[in-house]
Structures are given as structure tokens and as C-alpha cells.
């Protein structure tokens, strides 16, 4: 799942595809005929604002093929209007017999599976020897009938506004921004909004399975992708093949509890970073350098200083070398971004050191990467898609009074991130589409064993969610990584990767409760 700041969320860059070729066979699905796929060689590159007409652009990724899959806009009317889903395939490289297709969802909700797989395929090269790797943009995302809300310039402006309102005037301004966002989504994407939820995305995945010619769906879901995979398993348990869910989401908790647990997890991750940094001493850990001395600070002092820095940004945004200021909202996103991967900790150290000198360039660069903003000022549509999918899935609609009531718990969960994440529970306030039943049911009786991965230091999907999802599925097999960062497979841990690769490539189910790291 993505960092859940208020109003404007975070994103990844969308992608462009070029597709043509020979039409495949037509198969029959539960919701009508499913056309075969027209694969053709294509190049993938970032687009602007989910532009479905953008031309392909070269990347350094693996050789790719692209296609489009037609699905019903409204599954209650399978013979009615259709939309097209953008797909990408990285063909199996060999050696060994081809196992079929391995479908990915990398999270969000709202992340582009097309562009992400084009860039991430080398990280799955062992699996790619025997699987065709398949990425797709779920409905409402990227190049698949994208939800559109705010224009780029407006997103930039909102990100400079108050993210933790603490006066009646600021609260009123926050509520106006929320109302303006909802109105923009309704105006630009009203026809699509009722149809972009996770259940419909799961139905789309079963049509994708049929179109790929697969008897069973082999699937690798990460972060929100674990929720999508679990919903698929619940609805199509006998169509599940080898399924891996990494960075698990607990589908049974409400939005307030989710925010509280995520705030606490980001706080723990920040403390882990500070502890590691403080051990290096003041020469290698500039944030630990005491003002006016060369003495090192403790981890608790470093965490407190990060909080103080973000508090100062509330009243005094910081200059950067990018022509824009670093607001409190962007500063917090920048810090949170670096906690997604231990590999980004050095960048956080440098960014905090520069910020203490009055330069917010690195923190703003981190925030831009997380928000899907390119250097031309264009945003992906993740913010819009994230909100639209979340608010179709959930019936919760919170008010400012609800936030104020919950605020003490959020502050207790995280002195640094708590207030901002408390306001994040208003994401669906005023949304024009009634939400579905929440929490989601994901029990999957009849499904084969499903591998569920949890990282003890995960800030975005707290570890406790992994054993919870394994229990909720009923067929879940839990594998734990004792590590840092979001997700497990991408850590490179040989024990963890061995368990996953053995499961996907050879059908070897690890012992439930296996621990790595």
C-alpha cells in the first residue's frame, strides 16, 4: 500500500504501449465471451496524466510485448459498454519447460502494472526463465480507462497547502480542498467511478486468465496486490494456481484502524533508520550531529529532530533547487518514501542533512518520485485511481469531527506521522459513489495453499497484517522475513527468495511459519 497522506496521495509513473497483431481465439467466461490477445513487440515509457494516446518511448527494460483486453464496464450488464485493459508481457527466457503466465500486481491501489513490470522485470529473472511475466493496468489506472480528477498544476498547489490543519480556518480550507477534489473526479470521470473497485478488478483478472489460455491463475501480488489476490481467491477459489501475496493487507480492519497501525509502523521504521544512522557516528550520520558540536545524538533525538523539521515546514516552507518549495506535506512524503527501502536510507541521511542547512531538494525529489511527478510537472493518475478504488471498496465516510476524536490515538501511534495520517481517514468524505461492504471477505475454501509473505520492519503494510491475512484466507501459508522495508521478495534475502521461487517454479510449499533473515 502507498503512503496515505491527506487529500493528495502518492503514485508511480504511468506508461505507454503500442499494440497490433493477429487476433487470437475466443473463449467463454462466466460473464460472456473472452477474446484472445493480440500481442506485439512494444516499448514502454512514462506518459503524462494517464494519456492513453501517448506514443511508446524506449526504456532499458526487458523485451516486451503489449496487448489490450476488453472487459465489461459494468459486470451487471456484460453485453453493454466495454473498456480496455492495457497489458504487458515479458516472454519466458528459458531454459526449462515453460510453466505458463505469472500475473503481477505491484500495489497502490492505482499503480501501473504495465510500466512497473517493464522496469522491474530484471528483479524476477529467475521466475522469468519459465514464466511469461504479465503486468496489467487495472481498470481506472494508467492506460486502462484512467480515472481523472485534478489537473497537474492543481495537484502541485494542493501539495503546498496545510496537511495537518489545527485551527478552524485551516480545517475549513482542508474540507474545501476535499470537496473540490470530489467534484473534479465526478466531473471528469463520473461514468467510470462506480465500476473501479477491487471486486471488479478481480473479475477482470479471471477474464485475463482465460485470455492467456491458463487453466489456473498463477499470481504474484505485492502490497495492495495482496488484497486484490485475496479477493480473487475468495471469488474464484478453484481457479487459483500458485499464488504469492507479499506485503500483506489485512482486509478485516476499518480505515481508522488501518491508519493507526500504518502510522505506528512508519514511526517504527523511522526509529530503525535513526538507530542505524546513530551507530555510524556524526561523520557518517549528519542528522545526528549536534548543533555547535561534534557529538552524536541518540536515535530518539534524531527522530525528534525529524519531527521538529517537519513542524517548521508547516509555517515556513523550504527553498529547493527545483524551483518549488518543500511544504510540510511534501517533506513528510519525502521522509516516508525513504523508509520503503533500506537502500534509500543514505538518501534520507543526505536529505535531512541538507534540510538542516535550509535546502529541501533531496526530500522534494523523494516526494516527487513517490507522488508520480516527473521533472516536467506531470503526474500519473495514481492519486485519482487510489481514491476512486478505495472509496468504492469502503463504505466509511469520516468527518472532521471523527478526525478530532481519533487524533489522540494517532498522535500516540506516531509523533511524526500521526496527525497527517489522521486527516487521511477523510479520503472518501463526500465521495459520490456509495462504498461496498467493509471489511472485505477473503476466505477461500477450495483454493490450494497460498503463500503469504510478511516483513517485520514493513512501514506500509505492518507485519501483523500478514498472519492475519493468512488466517483469513484459510489456506494461507505464512513466511516471515525479519528485515526492513516494504515487502519481502525485493529484499534479496536468499532464504525468502528460495522459498518463493521453489513454490512458484516447482510447487514446493514451505512450512507454515517459516522465518528468514
UniProtKB/TrEMBL annotation:
The keyword RNA-binding does not apply. InterPro entries: AB_hydrolase_1, AB_hydrolase_fold, Pept_S33_TAP-like_C, Serine_prot/Carboxylest_S33. Residues 102-280 form the AB hydrolase-1 domain. The keyword Protein transport does not apply. Keywords: Hydrolase, Signal. Residues 415-516 form the Peptidase S33 tripeptidyl aminopeptidase-like C-terminal domain. GO terms for molecular function: hydrolase activity. It comes from the Bacteria. Pfam families: Abhydrolase_1 (PF00561), Abhydrolase_4 (PF08386). Belongs to the peptidase S33 family. This is Alpha/beta hydrolase. It comes from Spongiactinospora rosea.
